[in-house]
Amino acid sequence: MESSGLVTFPIPADIQALLGPPPVLTDEAAAVYRLGLAKFALLIKPSDVLGWLYVNSLTYDWCEIRLLRSLKPCAIRGRFEAEAKRNNEAEAHEMRRHADIQPWNPMGGDANLFGQWMGDYERVDELLRRAEQP
């Protein structure tokens, strides 16, 4: 079925009760979860409880992988912003002392920045790899 441009698939009431609410934190994520559940159901066409549990499991894994992939750039951005703030505070102090100091350039200078956020990136990457294993 198609309604409001979103794909839907009728989920029997007993199956809805069994599956429970989407295992996510936000209403937006719940909508994405329901859309994924409907799309997988359209493809698989579950006819019994095991089929629905399979569809639900696929949907859960897909949402988990989607979340982990979104965390990778967040980890990088968070480390970069923390480093920039720390460097900018130190730079402001130095600029007050020396008027001729150039502004901090986040793309140059501290080569250790990569190493600082790489650990976070690798941890998320490992979680993603585990989630994607069959």
Q: What do you see in this structure?
A:
It contains four helices and two strands. The radius of gyration is 23 Å and the shape is elongated. The chain has one domain (2-132). Strands 1-2 form a two-stranded antiparallel ribbon. The longest helix is centred in the middle third of the chain and has 49 residues, at 49-97. The protein starts with a strand and ends with a helix. The protein is an all-alpha fold. The relative contact order is 0.10.
Q: What is the compact description of this entry?
A:
71% of the residues lie in helices and 3% in strands. It has helices spanning 13-19, 27-44, 49-97, 112-132, and strands spanning 2-3, 6-7. The protein has a two-stranded antiparallel ribbon with strand order 1-2.
Residues in helices, as a percent range: over 70%
Beta strands, count: 2
Strands of the widest sheet, in order across it, are 1-2
- Number of domain modules: 1
List the helices and strands and how they pair.
Elements: E1 2-3, E2 6-7, H1 13-19, H2 27-44, H3 49-97, H4 112-132
Q: What key phrases describe this protein's structure?
A:
134 residues, elongated, two-stranded antiparallel sheet, mainly alpha
